[in-house]
Write a structure and sequence with these properties.
This protein has about 280 residues and is an alpha/beta fold. It is built from 10 helices and 9 strands.
Length: about 280
């Protein structure tokens, strides 16, 4: 193993982000570079680790079984981990190279969602890549990866297929796990729209959509206590978290273990806060 490859590997591993398309592509490029070098045991073990990071366990398995030492406890543990994903392929999706947009101008039409005033800003829709919608099979540069509560999985869904109800119909599913405080919502059309034509937010324990007055709320975004302070609403929201404001000020953190989800009533304008834990 050359020193330069080892040093570059440490840097790649340190900076790798499985949620970033560019980072995934950089790891694939480094993989191809390692494959061109002499196939020493050290380089092969680096390839195993790269394939594992890219969740390509079949490739990792082929290489690791040629270099592993089952008398070594670390190798035993790694073999068991790789073998688990080989035996349970549906547990994880490989991180294949991503098609990244160079032109950041959004071309996909985003219909107006009643309960999502700004679905891109609130991070319901993503815009990092050009993908193919699993429902209409069209290439789009705005897409939803939050999934649908259905038997069959959908990796990418476009805004139009969700808004029209085509996605929910095709997969015979819904986008919300549950509805909260919806006893006063008597209009069945509202419920159909929130369940079948409004993409859900991503949460730790399953997305539960808030209702207030006689309709469902608009989703404003993911928040921690600092975001509530910035909005100057720390004393102006209806609290459905089960925690006091003092407790929330100490534990609520955006992208943290105690995640907040901010809604706003479409009728009275009051903010509504919900949260869950990892």
């Amino acid at each position: 193993m050359t020193t330069s490859i080892l040093e570059e590997w440490h840097e790649q591993r340190k900076n790798f982000n499985p949620s970033n398309p560019a980072s995934i592509n950089h790891m694939h490029e480094f993989k191809e570079k390692v494959k061109l070098h002499e196939q020493t045991e050290g380089n092969l073990r680096i390839l195993v680790d790269i394939y594992c990071m890219l969740r390509m366990y079949s490739e990792a398995y082929k290489i690791f079984t040629s270099v592993m030492d089952l008398g070594n406890k670390k190798d035993q543990k790694k073999f068991g981990s790789i073998k688990y994903y080989i035996d349970n392929p549906n547990c994880v999706k490989p991180l294949y190279p991503c098609k990244i947009r160079e032109d950041k101008t959004i071309k996909t039409v985003i219909p107006k969602f009643k309960y999502l005033p700004d679905p891109v800003q609130s991070k319901i829709f993503e815009t990092e890549e050009v993908v193919t919608c699993d429902c209409c099979e069209q290439e789009v540069d705005v897409y939803y990866t939050g999934g649908i509560y259905a038997i069959e999985e959908a990796e990418y869904l476009c805004p139009t297929c969700i808004h029209s109800g085509a996605a929910a119909k095709k997969y015979d599913g819904s986008f919300q796990q549950d509805l909260i405080n919806d006893e006063t919502v008597v209009n069945a059309n509202f419920t159909e729209e929130i369940m079948c034509r409004t993409p859900g937010y991503v949460s730790w324990q399953g997305n539960n959509w808030m209702a207030h007055c006689s309709d469902y709320c608009a989703f404003i975004g993911y928040v921690g206590w600092s975001e509530l302070v910035e909005l100057d609403i720390t004393e102006q929201f209806e609290n459905y978290t089960g925690f006091s404001t003092e407790e929330l000020s100490e534990s609520l953190m955006n992208n943290g273990h105690h995640q907040g989800y901010l809604f706003q009533c479409l009728q009275c304008g009051r903010y509504v806060l919900y949260s869950d834990f990892s």
